[in-house]
Write a structure and sequence with these properties.
Elements (H helix, E strand, L loop, with lengths): L6 E5 L8 E5 L5 E12 L2 E8 L8 E9 L2 E5 L4 H24 L1
Antiparallel strand pairs: 1-2, 2-3, 3-4, 4-5, 5-6
């Protein structure tokens, strides 16, 4: 899901422990995600959202712009440079986790 144009709506689904985040793509189709992780790059936090629907294989990443009550406010990453930094940092983070699993 390379396109970063989404509206952000949140709803609860009791079938999952975590809050289900529903994003609507540019075609108006809704996709459901859970918060997989939060990583920090250059002192900015980013939400890694993992799909829970079978029609998607990839997660998405959004900048965390703050909070509105108990909800995170998510923003699209507009800059290709910022996007690449976050993807690189996430890949490094995942590699480190894999290394820890192999050692432990």
């Amino acid at each position: 899901m390379a396109d970063h144009d989404h509206t952000h709506e949140h709803e609860h689904d009791h079938e999952f422990e975590d809050e289900v985040i529903v994003l609507e793509d540019e075609d108006g189709q809704e996709h459901r995600f859970i918060l997989g992780d939060v990583i920090t790059v250059d002192e900015q936090d980013y939400a890694i959202l993992l799909p829970i629907d079978d029609d998607l294989e990839e997660g998405v990443i959004f900048r965390i712009a703050g909070e509105d009550g108990e909800d995170m406010v998510l923003e699209d990453i507009e800059s290709d440079e910022e996007w690449q930094k976050v993807v690189d940092a996430y890949n490094e983070y995942m590699d480190d986790l894999d290394d820890e699993d192999e050692e432990g």
